[in-house]
Amino acid sequence: MRLPVIALAAGLALQAHARQPIVAEAPLRAHLSFLADDLLEGRGTGQRGGDLTVRYLETQAAVLGLKPLADGSYRQLVKAEGSKLLPGSSVRVSADNGKELTPAIGTEILIGTMGGKEDITVDAPVVFVGYGAVAPEEKWDDYKGVDMKGKLLVMMVNDPQPTAAEPNRFAGKAYTYYGRWMYKYEEAVRQGAAGVLLIHTTPSASYGWSVPATSFAHERFHLAGSGNPLEGWLQEDTARALFAAGGFDLDQLRADAERSDFRPVDLKLKLRAEVKSKIRQIEQYNVVGIVPGTDAKLKSEAVVYSAHWDHLGIDDSKQGDNIWNGAIDNGSGVAALLAMAQEAVKHPAKRSQVFLWPAGEETGFLGSIAYIRNPAWPLDKTSADLNLDSMNFVGKTRDIGVAGAERSSLYAAAEVVAKQMGLKLAPAIPDLSGAYFRADHFSFAKAGVPAFNVGSAVFSGDGYFDFTDNQERNRARLVAFKQDYHQPSDQYHADWDLSGMVQQAQFTLNLGYHVANAPTMQTWKAGDAFGKVKR
To answer: Residue 140's CB: how many other CB atoms inside 10 A?
Structure first.
């Protein structure tokens, strides 16, 4: 009598296993190698490569069996405005004492416009505004009510640093959104400024000058009507020289700006910028596909998986390799979502599952912001967003990065899934680079949806990596990738060990199913800033 019971149990176990969505490496690798190929020309926003990418993704979504949006399309419109700096632009800074400086565009100063006009002249007094932050919950206001209309603002990136008396102000040593360049530019718009320049240092920005320099050398995009007439960056040495020309010491003013009673400082300078740009209006698209839920009640709710499809495209003015292929950033995430969707359509969950490939992440989260403004699924019915961006390409790990999950109930869910997979969650470390605010999931978080980027420290070369094999080689590859980040050298290599990428994708999909089948929606932890946003 025991054999039939054993056979029945084995049969049920096989059926249960058959119902488990298992991410396969072959389709993931095939998608990745194609998405990073020169044929797609770096998947640039507003370029042919971007159009080809959208066409590929919507075709794959249909082939896989994902359901389209209500209008029968997999496309969601994103209207944007492009701006590319042209030769003939110039910057001159004049001090009240007669001194003049002409910083070199590209090496000493970066400038561009998001004001929508092809030829503009900015002639404005220069004001140092510290960190340029208005943070009521921190009792912090760098502007102190001073009228900034028509002025050129110079400010630091990062946040006011903790002190012995206030060790936890602005999250201590960790970054907050107030430290990000996006926030700085947004606040300058709210202040009515003529423009804004950020002082670059590698420690404060968490990346070298080449990153913003590459961005400003390309065409930049924004949602129409949302930018500054002039915006850019200053090399630290350039900022030091400008401050000195006005009779001020940069280091002393930076020290002053660490105090909450800091007030804006007129630098006794005027900046005149002649900005010549090519401006155009474009239509880009998010790609969205849906796996409807099976539960009569819960199918009205959803979990979102996201991965931006864009990279930096092709630059015809550059000699040599002029294609920014973006294999890791973010061909990896795009390919992973396709491989995950291939399995998800075979195994619907109780809640619906939304696969989202946003446009324009590299130029300021354009696609995810547009999605939030016009969501394919109601945000108050969206349990979570799980984002993938720049994934593990060097082999399996013993643990997984979930930085940001601790802000919500997603951390407890991730613990359950990690244990089931024999993984550990990476130890929590201070977010010194503002990683939580540097990917598309943050658009969801600001809208009140629990969200994080799974494995967000993949190319840092430290943190959660504890390789089972070839540790030194793999760590060396990760460190080397720092030189490939946002460079044409971010290319696909056929000898990559993608077992770790598959592992990361599998963890994300398993977590998504855990969320999709949970009795209740995910929630923010009490006291978290994003938990205050009404859903």
So the answer is: 18
Name the residue type at position 517: N
**Rounded Cα gap, residues 162 and 152, in angstroms:** 28
Secondary structure letter of residue 432 according to DSSP: T
Kindly report the backbone phi and psi dihedral angles of residue 479, in degrees, each rounded to the nearest multiple of 5, phi listed first.
-65, -40
Cβ-contact 457, 435 below 8 angstroms: yes
Q: Which residue has the tokens 């643990």?
A: 399
Rounded to 5 degrees, what are φ and ψ at 439? -150, 170
pLDDT tens per residue across span 303-337: 999 999 999 999 887 889 999 999 999 999 999 99
For the entire predicted model, the pTM comes to: 0.86
How many residues can be counted in the chain?
535
The single-letter code of the amino acid at 349 is A
Residue 265, both tokens: 């400082």
Distance from C-alpha of 222 to C-alpha of 224, rounded to nearest angstrom: 6
DSSP 218-262: S-EEE-TT-S-SEEEEEEHHHHHHHHHHTT--HHHHHHHTTSTT-
Phi, psi of 113, rounded to the nearest 5 degrees: -120, 145
Instruction: Give the gyration radius of the chain's Cα atoms.
Output: 24
